[in-house]
């Protein structure tokens, strides 16, 4: 293997909990909520799927269907979809819905998995190219800069910048082209068999990790260090 492609959310980094997200936004805006109401609102936001990178919505309102379908292809649609889902939940002020979205796309809302720095650093030491391939509607590069991980990344291939999303093989092909590597010599690492497994159609090998909270997944990425040098990888 000459390159490893990584998914972002649930693979290298994890979004904070919905409750933490709401508490941080309330604090930043100087808004007070009684504890029972705060917990109730956080639960409702989770059910609504309002946190980017969090749980999927149990149902998408008809008026948000178009924005939801386009959320990873266009930054405006991404914001409209998630603030629209947030607005299904009553909050003390309407401005909080935009403030919640703004919080979710900042580095403060994200935490790298514990073994991510070690794995990326070792791949760089071995001369293996690293690309980030993500279905996303906002620029995640500041997250990597914040945690000192950007120095290990050779290419960012984001769906909203290319107008195509995983599992479409064109997004993986764009990553391979940008890195100057052949798909058959490339490994894709992600948490979604449906989305990240699309790399197999291009000829990449694939490896999956579980999308778990950071504290519950301390070392799931470490096996990746053995996979690029193995001739016998499991099929997609």
From TrEMBL:
Keywords: Hydrolase. GO terms for molecular function: hydrolase activity. It comes from the Bacteria. InterPro entries: HAD-like_sf (IPR036412), HAD-SF_hydro_IA (IPR006439), HAD_sf (IPR023214). This is HAD family hydrolase.
């Amino acid at each position: 293997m000459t390159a490893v492609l990584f998914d972002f959310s649930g693979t290298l980094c994890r979004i904070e909990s919905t409750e933490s997200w709401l508490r941080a936004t309330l604090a930043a805006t100087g808004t007070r909520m009684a504890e029972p109401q705060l917990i109730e609102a956080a639960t409702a936001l989770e059910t609504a799927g309002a946190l980017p990178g969090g749980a999927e919505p149990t149902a998408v309102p008809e008026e948000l269907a178009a924005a939801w379908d386009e959320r990873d292809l266009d930054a405006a649609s991404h914001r409209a979809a998630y603030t629209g889902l947030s607005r299904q939940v009553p909050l003390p002020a309407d401005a909080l819905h935009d403030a919640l979205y703004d919080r979710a796309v900042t580095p403060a809302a994200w935490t790298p998995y514990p073994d991510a720095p070690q794995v990326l650093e070792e791949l760089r030491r071995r001369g293996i190219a690293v690309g980030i391939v993500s279905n996303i509607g906002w620029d995640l590069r500041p997250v990597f800069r914040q945690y000192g991980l950007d120095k290990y990344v050779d290419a960012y291939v984001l769906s909203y910048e290319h107008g195509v999303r995983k599992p479409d093989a064109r997004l993986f092909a764009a990553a391979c082209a940008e890195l100057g590597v052949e798909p058959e010599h490339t490994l894709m690492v992600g948490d979604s068999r449906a989305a990240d497994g699309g790399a197999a159609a291009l000829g990449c090998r694939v490896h999956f990790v579980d999308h778990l909270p950071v504290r519950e997944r301390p070392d799931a990425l470490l096996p990746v260090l053995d996979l690029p040098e193995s001739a016998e990888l499991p099929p997609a």
